[in-house]
Design brief:
The complex is a heterodimer of chains A (126) and B (890). With 126 residues, chain A is an alpha+beta fold. Chain A has a single domain, classed as OB fold (Dihydrolipoamide Acetyltransferase, E2P). Chain A is built from 3 helices and 9 strands. In chain A, the strands form 2 sheets. A 6-stranded antiparallel β-sheet of chain A has the order 1-2-3-9-8-5. In chain A, β1 and β2 form a beta hairpin. Chain A starts with 7 loop residues before the first strand and ends with a helix. Chain B is 36% helix and 11% strand. In chain B, the strands form 5 sheets. A 7-stranded mixed β-sheet of chain B has the order 1-7-6-5-4-2-3, sandwiched between helices. A 7-stranded mixed β-sheet of chain B has the order 12-18-17-16-15-13-14, sandwiched between helices. In chain B, strands 19-21-20 form a 3-stranded antiparallel β-sheet, with helices on one face. Chain B is built from 29 helices and 21 strands. Chain B is α/β, with parallel strands linked by helices and 890 residues long. The model of chain B has no long low-confidence stretch (mean pLDDT 95). In chain B, α22 crosses α24. Classes of the chains: A alpha+beta (126), B alpha/beta (890). Chains A and B meet through β4 of A and α28 of B.
C-alpha cells in the first residue's frame, strides 16, 4: 500500500500536504481501496469554515458512504471540481488528481497532532 | 386438509427426517433448546380455533357485507377510479407480481424495474420536474418528506419555519405537523395570500388544485418564497395535470401527491403509491427508492436501484429519511394505467370529469378541475362519476377557464404502444416473466420472511366492499371494516402480549417512528420531555437509528459481543451514563443475528431501571409467534410487519404494514387522526394520511390468523425454526453458520459465513450464481459483511429446502474447482444470449453455465440481463425512460 513520505495522515485515513498555511487534503490509497469504486464525492463549499476532527465531506461508493473529517481547522479555499464528473480520480490517483479540498489553516500547529507516514503505515498494518 | 397443512411446507413425515438431521428427537425438544425457558409462553394464545379456507372466506364476506359501497363525492386526495380489468387480474391479483421481493437483485427484477422507471417518467412528465422517485407511502408523508428536504437544503440554521397553506388536505397538514414537532420545525398554517415571508422560513407547502378544488396561481407566491431563500413544495393531482399547467412550470422545487386515482382502488385508505419529484440539484437529498439505468456485463442497458447510499440501510442516522420501502405494486399499477390509456386517453378521462364538474360549477371564483364548492359542501367528481350521479346538482354557472397545459407529456414510446388489451396483456406478461417471484422458487431472505401469500388470503382484497370505500366515509358505512379492525387488534394484542394496537403505520419504519413518538409523549406527560437518548445496538438494522433521529432522539450505539449479542456491560454503562436523559432502547428479537439472546429480559430490566422504555423491532416476530411475546419479555412497544409475519405479500417492494402494539401505560398516546376519531385518549398526531393505514390489505392478515388458529400459528413458528436449523446443519460442512444460541441452535434464520472462501470469490458472486440455479439470493452482507443470511420460513417444503441446499453445495464445488477468475461464479448470472453466442471462450461448458442442476432442465429461469454494473449506474445517473431507448438504438 502506497504511503507517500511527504504527507501527514489522520487516523481516519485522510492525508494532508502542507505548503505554507495551505493544506491540501485527500483520502489515502488504503481508504480508497477499502471503499472500492467511488461514485460520488460531496465537497464543502468554498469559503466554509471547517474544524479539525469534524466531518466536512462525504465519499460514496455503491456500497458505502463514508464521512471525511477535516484533519486541520481553517477556511476552505478550493475544492477539486473535477470530482463531480470523474469521482473515479479518487481511486485512480488518491494522492494526486484525486485530492478533495484545500484549507487555509487557522492553526498550523494542528499538523503536529497528525501521524507520520511510518506511524500511519503501522496504523493500517501495511 | 386444514389450511395450516397447506401453509406449512414440511409434512409430518418430512419433519421426522429433518429432526434427525438437526439432531433432536422432537420439534418440542428443538424449541426447548433454542428458545430460552424463562421467556416461554406458559399457556396457549387465546385465539379462535382455525377455520377452513371456505369458512373463513364466508365469515369475512358476511362481515364485509356490512360495508356500504356508495358513490363517493368526498375527494380530499382519494378518488374512485376504474381499475382496468387487464391490470386488476394480471397485476393486482397475480402472484407473479405481488409475491416478488424488493428489486435488490436487479438481474432477476428487470420487469418491475422497468414498470417503476415508467412510473418515474410518468411523474416527471406530468409534474414537469427533473427527477422522480419510485414512490412513497402516501401523499401526506410525501409532503412531510418534502418538508425534510427543504429543511436539509436550507442555508442557515436560523431558518426553522415551514409555511403550510390552509387549503392543503387536512390529513396532510396534520401529518406534516406531527413530523415537524420533534425536529423543532415551526409550522405556520394560513392563507398564502396573507402570508408575510421573513428570513426564518425555509419552505412552503401548497396544494394544487386545493382541497376545495380551487386552482390558485402560485407563481408570484413561489417567486416570493425563492426571494427569501425558501423552497416551494407543491402537492398536486396527476389527473388534473393532464389539463393544467404543471408545478414544474411555475417554479416548484418539490412536487408530491398520490397516484391512487390512476387505477388503484381507494381501499378505505390504501395502499396507494405516492410520488415525489424534485429538481436535479436536490436529487441526492431525495427520500425513498430510485430506479436508474446502467449497463450489464455485456454492455447492454440494464436497470437497477440507484443511489442506495442515501438510504437508511447504509446511512443509518444520517440517511435522507427512515423510509425503507416503496409502494411498488401500486406504483406498477398506476404506471400501467398510464401505459394503457396513453397521454390522449388520460386527457380524455380528465376532460370528461372536468366537463361534468363544470355542469355543477363552483361558488369559489377560481378555476377548478373536478372539485367544486356548492354552498358549504365540497363536491369531488372522479372517473366513475356519471351524468345521472350529478343530475340533481346541475346548475347554470359559467366556469373560469383552466390555466391550460401547453407542454406535451408521456411522449416516450412505452406510453404510446399498448392501448389494446392484447398488447397490454402481453406487455404485462413480458415484464412479469423477467422477474423471479415466489411462483418460481423460495426467496430465502433473512429478516424479510417471504412466506406463503395464500390465494384465500388475497381474494378479499379486490372485493368491492373492501376496495371501493373512501377512507373518510362515515364510520356507519364501514361497519364491516370496523369489526375487522376490532378483531385484528384484539388478536395482535394477544399475540404480542400488549394492551392496545394502532393499525395506522404503513410500514415497519413508520411503526418505529410512531412507537418512538408514543414513548416521547409518555415521558413528556410524566414531566420528562428532555429524555431523548435512544440506545441502539450496533447490530440493529439501519432503519432504527434513522427513525430515532426523525423522532428527535439522539442515538447512542451499544456494542455487541463476539457472539453477536448485546454487550450487557456496555449497555449497563451507557444506560447509567445517560440515566437522566434515557428515552428508549430499540432492540430486535430474536437478534438480527438470528439468535434468541439469553439476556433479553435483563436487557429490558436495565433499560427500565434507568427510566427508559423498550422498543422491540418486530422484524423477527416470526420466530416468536405462539412461543413467547414481546410484552411478557419486558418490551413496552413493538411493531409488527404484517407484510412479513402476517402474510401480506411484499408486492415487489411494497406495500407493507407496520402496526404498533403497546403496553397499557402507553395506550393513551396511540396516533389520532384529524378527520376520523380514533387513537388514544391523549393521542400523538397522525403518522399516515389514512386513519387505519392501508386498510384494504388488513383482510390478508385477518384471514391468515383466522385460518391458522392458535395451534397452526404455533406449529408454523416451530417449523420456521426447524427449517432454519435444517439448512444450517445441512450446509455446515460447506458454509459454517456464524452465530448460534443455546444448544448451538439458531432461531428462524441463519447467517452463512463466506469469509473463508477462496481468495477472489465474493459473496456477491455466490448470490449471482444462485440465479443460474433458479434461486433468489438470501440477504447479502447484512448484518455481517461477507455472509448470506437465510430465512426459509415455515412455508418451504423439505423438497424446496433440499433443492436450495443442493444448489449451495454444488456452488461450493464450483468454487473449489475454479482455477482462475474466468469461472461460472464470476460470470454469473448467464443469460440465454451469452449461452447461445457463437463465441464461447470460458474454461467451463455452456451446459454447466446454464444448466448446473437437474431441475433447471425441467424449468429454467433465465436472468434477463447479465451482471449489472452498479458503479457505472451511480456514476452516470439516468432515471428516465427516454435515454434507455436511445441507448438501445446505438
Amino acid at each position: 500500500m502506497n504511503v507517500p513520505k511527504n504527507l501527514k495522515y489522520a487516523k481516519s485515513h485522510e492525508w494532508v500536504l502542507a505548503q505554507g498555511d495551505t493544506a491540501t487534503v485527500g483520502i489515502t490509497d488504503h481508504a480508497q481501496h477499502e471503499l472500492t469504486d467511488i461514485v460520488y464525492v460531496e465537497l464543502p463549499a468554498s469559503g466554509a469554515d471547517v474544524t479539525a476532527g469534524k466531518e466536512c465531506a462525504v465519499v460514496e461508493s455503491v456500497k458505502a458512504a463514508s464521512d471525511i473529517y477535516a484533519p486541520v481547522s481553517g477556511e476552505i479555499i478550493g475544492v477539486n471540481d473535477a470530482l463531480s464528473s470523474t469521482p473515479e480520480l479518487v481511486n485512480d490517483d488518491p494522492f494526486g488528481k484525486g485530492w478533495l479540498f484545500k484549507v487555509r489553516m487557522s492553526d498550523p500547529g494542528q499538523l503536529d497532532a497528525l501521524l507520520s507516514p511510518d506511524d500511519y503505515a503501522q496504523h493500517i498494518g501495511a | 386438509m386444514s389450511f395450516a397443512a397447506r401453509h406449512i411446507g414440511p409434512s409430518p413425515a418430512d419433519i421426522e427426517q429433518m429432526l434427525r438431521v438437526v439432531g433432536v428427537a422432537s420439534l418440542d425438544e428443538l424449541i426447548d433448546q433454542a428458545v430460552p425457558a424463562g421467556i416461554r409462553l406458559r399457556e396457549p394464545l387465546k385465539l379462535p380455533a382455525a377455520a377452513t379456507e371456505a369458512e373463513a372466506l364466508a365469515e369475512l364476506k358476511t362481515m364485509m357485507a356490512r360495508n356500504k359501497v356508495t358513490r363517493s363525492f368526498i375527494g380530499m386526495g382519494y378518488y374512485d377510479c376504474i381499475t382496468p380489468p387487464v391490470i386488476q387480474r394480471n397485476i393486482l391479483e397475480n402472484p407473479g407480481w405481488y409475491t416478488a421481493y424488493t428489486p435488490y437483485q436487479p438481474e432477476i427484477s428487470q420487469g418491475r424495474l422497468e414498470a417503476l422507471l415508467n412510473f418515474q417518467q410518468m411523474v416527471m412528465d406530468l409534474t414537469a420536474m427533473d427527477i422522480a422517485n419510485a414512490s412513497l407511502l402516501d401523499e401526506a408523508t410525501a409532503a412531510a418528506e418534502a418538508m425534510h428536504l427543504a429543511e436539509a437544503a436550507r442555508g442557515s440554521e436560523t431558518k426553522h419555519v415551514f409555511f403550510v397553506s390552509d387549503t392543503c388536505h387536512p390529513q396532510t397538514i396534520e401529518v406534516v405537523k406531527t413530523r415537524a414537532k420533534p425536529r423543532g420545525v415551526e409550522i405556520v398554517v394560513g392563507d398564502h395570500r396573507q402570508f408575510q415571508f421573513d428570513d426564518r422560513v425555509f419552505g412552503v407547502l401548497l396544494q394544487y388544485p386545493a382541497t376545495d378544488g380551487a386552482i390558485h396561481d402560485f407563481e408570484p407566491f413561489i417567486k416570493l418564497a425563492h426571494e427569501h431563500k425558501a423552497l416551494a413544495c407543491v402537492a398536486t393531482d396527476l389527473l388534473a395535470l393532464t389539463l393544467i399547467k404543471p408545478p414544474g412550470e411555475f417554479g416548484a422545487d418539490v412536487v408530491v401527491g398520490s397516484a391512487q386515482r390512476f387505477g388503484v382502488p381507494m381501499g378505505y385508505g390504501g395502499p396507494h403509491a405516492a410520488f415525489f419529484a424534485t429538481r436535479d440539484e436536490f436529487k441526492r437529498m431525495m427520500p425513498g427508492r430510485l430506479v436508474g439505468v446502467s449497463k450489464d456485463a455485456q454492455g447492454r442497458p440494464a436497470l437497477r436501484l440507484a443511489l442506495q447510499t442515501r438510504e437508511q440501510h447504509i446511512r443509518r442516522d444520517k440517511a435522507t429519511s427512515n423510509i425503507c420501502t416503496a409502494q411498488v405494486l401500486l406504483a406498477v399499477m398506476s404506471s400501467m394505467y398510464a401505459v394503457y390509456h396513453g397521454p390522449a386517453g388520460l386527457k380524455r378521462i380528465a376532460q370528461r370529469v372536468h366537463d361534468l364538474a363544470c355542469k355543477i360549477g363552483s361558488d369559489v371564483d377560481l378555476p377548478f378541475f373536478d372539485t367544486v364548492r356548492v354552498g358549504d359542501r365540497i363536491i369531488a367528481l372522479d372517473e366513475t362519476t356519471t351524468e345521472s350521479d350529478i343530475a340533481g346538482l346541475v346548475r347554470e354557472k359559467t366556469s373560469p377557464p383552466l390555466p391550460a397545459r401547453t407542454s406535451p407529456f408521456l411522449t416516450a414510446k412505452v406510453f404510446n404502444s399498448y392501448h389494446t388489451e392484447h398488447e397490454m396483456l402481453r406487455y404485462i406478461k413480458r415484464l412479469e416473466a423477467k422477474d423471479l417471484s415466489l411462483t418460481t422458487s423460495m426467496i430465502p431472505l433473512g429478516s424479510c420472511t417471504m412466506k406463503l401469500n395464500a390465494t384465500a388470503e388475497m381474494t378479499p382484497v379486490s372485493w368491492p366492499e373492501v376496495a371501493k370505500l373512501h377512507p373518510f366515509a362515515p364510520v356507519t358505512q364501514a361497519l364491516g371494516y370496523q369489526e375487522l379492525f376490532r378483531q385484528l387488534e384484539t388478536w395482535l394484542a394477544e399475540i404480542t402480549g400488549f394492551a392496545a394496537v394502532s393499525l395506522q403505520p404503513n410500514a415497519g419504519s413508520q411503526g418505529e417512528y410512531a412507537g418512538l413518538l408514543v414513548i416521547h409523549e409518555y415521558h413528556a406527560q410524566r414531566g420528562e420531555p428532555h429524555r431523548d437518548i435512544c440506545l441502539i445496538p450496533t447490530s440493529a438494522h439501519g432503519t432504527n437509528p434513522a427513525s430515532a433521529v426523525m423522532a428527535g432522539m439522539k442515538v447512542v450505539p451499544v456494542a455487541c459481543d463476539e457472539a453477536g449479542n448485546v454487550d450487557l456491560g456496555d449497555l449497563r454503562a451507557k444506560a447509567q451514563l445517560h440515566a437522566a436523559n434515557l428515552a428508549a432502547l430499540m432492540v430486535t428479537y430474536p437478534s438480527t443475528h438470528g439468535v434468541f439472546e439469553e439476556g433479553i429480559q435483563e436487557i429490558c430490566e436495565i433499560v427500565h431501571q434507568h427510566g427508559g422504555q423498550v422498543y422491540m423491532d418486530g422484524a423477527n416476530l416470526n420466530a416468536q409467534l405462539g412461543l413467547c411475546r414481546p410484552g411478557d419479555i419486558g418490551a413496552d412497544v413493538c411493531h409488527l410487519n404484517l407484510h412479513k409475519t402476517f402474510c401480506i405479500p411484499h408486492g415487489g417492494g411494497g406495500p407493507g404494514m407496520g402496526p404498533i402494539a403497546v403496553a397499557e401505560h402507553l395506550a393513551d398516546f396511540l396516533p389520532g387522526h384529524p378527520i376520523v376519531n380514533l387513537g388514544g385518549e391523549n393521542p400523538i398526531g397522525p403518522v399516515s394520511a389514512a386513519p387505519w393505514g392501508s386498510a384494504s390489505i388488513l383482510p390478508i392478515s385477518w384471514m391468515f390468523i383466522r385460518m391458522m388458529g392458535e395451534a397452526g400459528l404455533t406449529e408454523a413458528t416451530k417449523v420456521a425454526i426447524l427449517n432454519a436449523n435444517y439448512i444450517a446443519k445441512r450446509l455446515a460442512k460447506h458454509f459454517p453458520t456464524l452465530y448460534a444460541g443455546h444448544g448451538d441452535f439458531v432461531a428462524h434464520e441463519c447467517i452463512l459465513d463466506f469469509r473463508t472462501l477462496k481468495a477472489g470469490v465474493t459473496v456477491e458472486d455466490v448470490a449471482k450464481r444462485l440465479m443460474d440455479y433458479g434461486f433468489h439470493a438470501p440477504t447479502m452482507s447484512w448484518p455481517v459483511a461477507g455472509t448470506l443470511m437465510v430465512e426459509p420460513t415455515e412455508s418451504e417444503s423439505k423438497a424446496e429446502l433440499d433443492r436450495f441446499c443442493d444448489a449451495m453445495i454444488s456452488i461450493h464445488g464450483e468454487i473449489q474447482a475454479s482455477k482462475s477468475d474466468d469461472n461460472p461464479l464470476k460470470n454469473a448470472p448467464h443469460t440465454a444470449q451469452m449461452i447461445v453466442a457463437d463465441k464461447w471462450t470460458h474454461p467451463y461448458s455452456r451446459e454447466q453455465a446454464a444448466f448446473p442442476a437437474p431441475w433447471t432442465r425441467e424449468h429454467k429461469f433465465w436472468p434477463a440481463v447479465a451482471r449489472v454494473d452498479n458503479v457505472y449506474g451511480d456514476r452516470n445517473l439516468v432515471c428516465s425512460c427516454a435515454p434507455l431507448e436511445a441507448y438501445a438504438e446505438v
